[in-house]
Design brief:
The complex is a heterodimer of chains A (about 80) and B (about 140). Chain A is an alpha+beta fold. Chain A has two helices and five strands. A five-stranded mixed beta sheet of chain A has the order 2-1-5-3-4. In chain B, helix 2 packs antiparallel against helix 3. The chains are: A alpha+beta (about 80), B alpha+beta (about 140). At the A-B interface, strand 4 of A face strand 4, helix 2, helix 3 and strand 8 of B.
Chain lengths: ~80, ~140
């Protein structure tokens, strides 16, 4: 199944894109998808410890099970306010 | 709790926001806070900050925070405006107003909200450094990188 991935802030520079699609297995957990993303975009590995991840509009745990068409967002710590 | 949230690329008009204020008869505390862009970001002197936001998620995360705030404090209303795009030094990037019965809950809720948004709301700052100009006193020349 396919999920959409989007990057924000300087993650766009690290990946040289703002969005991509990812093919994952049915029942794939988020953490597996993240490993696939990091394999595809190795520069993200250096940001592993400070990467925030959302699925849809919510922060979710790494064992979150993905659904077809889910949108995964990766970004550095937020800085609003 | 009445709530008003706005992410905008337009300048924050604090006078207009104050003129639009509504305070119920049971409320005795009206707090407003505005956060302005300073001229330093870390060690770098800056001219502006370009605020990037994941708008849909930002609105949603703000709503979740306000849901929590409503459960925790007796707030009559909250209004919040956050800039996106380029904001120059000495301009406001954030405006928040909290109306509550008493000052204790108003101050606590406002502080909590600002602290929480810095952890949860997907907005990022891209500092725009000041152009550097200066004089080389030995050679009397000026330079600008």
């Amino acid at each position: 199944m396919q999920v959409r991935v989007q990057f924000f802030s300087y993650f766009k520079d690290l990946t040289e894109t703002s969005t991509c699609t990812l093919d994952v297995q049915e029942g794939c957990r988020l953490e597996c998808a993240l490993e696939d993303i990091r394999s595809r975009f190795p520069k993200l590995e250096t940001m592993r410890r400070c990467t925030l991840v959302a699925v849809g509009l919510d922060y979710v745990a790494k064992d979150h099970i993905l659904q077809e068409g889910d949108e995964i967002s990766l970004f550095p710590p937020v800085q609003g306010g | 709790m009445k709530r008003s949230l706005k992410l905008t690329h337009e300048p924050i008009d604090e006078a207009l926001l104050q003129a639009q204020r509504e305070v119920g008869a049971a409320s005795g505390a009206v707090l407003s806070f505005s956060g302005w862009v300073r001229d330093m970001e870390g060690e770098a002197r800056i001219a502006a900050i370009d605020y990037e936001g994941y708008e849909k998620m930002a609105y949603h995360q703000f709503d979740l925070l306000l849901d929590q705030m409503e459960k925790q404090w007796p707030i009559e209303s909250i209004r919040l405006v956050h800039r996106l795009g380029k904001v120059v030094v000495n301009e406001p990037s954030l405006w928040v107003e909290v109306v509550a019965p008493h000052r204790l809950e108003a101050f606590e809720a406002l502080m909590w909200l600002i602290d929480s948004m810095k952890l949860k709301v997907p907005i990022w700052k891209h500092p725009i450094e000041s152009p550097i100009t200066g004089q080389d006193e030995d050679h009397g020349s000026s330079y600008s990188p």
